[in-house]
Amino acid sequence: MTGTIYHINKQREMYSILESSGNFIVFELLGNCELSKGDTITGTILSGGGAKLRNLTTLENFDVSIERINCTEFSARQGCFLG
Fold it and tell me: pTM for the full model?
């Protein structure tokens, strides 16, 4: 999977990735890593649960908990608690 950071809720550490397919992935950031809208993210995501992703923009690896996969923009926005 490769995509870009799209939604950000820093208070809850919830983020979404827009994949090239147009689908979204929602994840909770575990640990310390600064992510910005538009950062390019890569990693292997097969299902929900723990995963390790890489920020190609900053060259940092980070751990996440995958909350939603293959979802719409509306669902991703809800998953990030943005309305």
Answer: 0.95
Query: Percent of the chain at pLDDT above 70?
Result: 100
- Whether the CB-CB separation of 7 and 77 falls below 8 Å is answered with yes
Give me the DSSP letters along 5-50: EEEEETTTTEEEEEETTS-EEEEEEESS----TT-EEEE---SSEE
Query: Which pLDDT band holds residue 31 (cuts at 50, 70, 90)?
Result: confident
Given a contact cutoff of 8 angstroms between Cβ atoms, the answer to whether 35 and 55 are in contact is yes
Q: Name, in order, each residue with C-beta under 8 angstroms of 63's C-beta and a sequence gap of 6 or more.
A: 29, 30, 31, 50, 51, 52, 53
At 52, give phi and psi (nearest 5°).
-115, 125
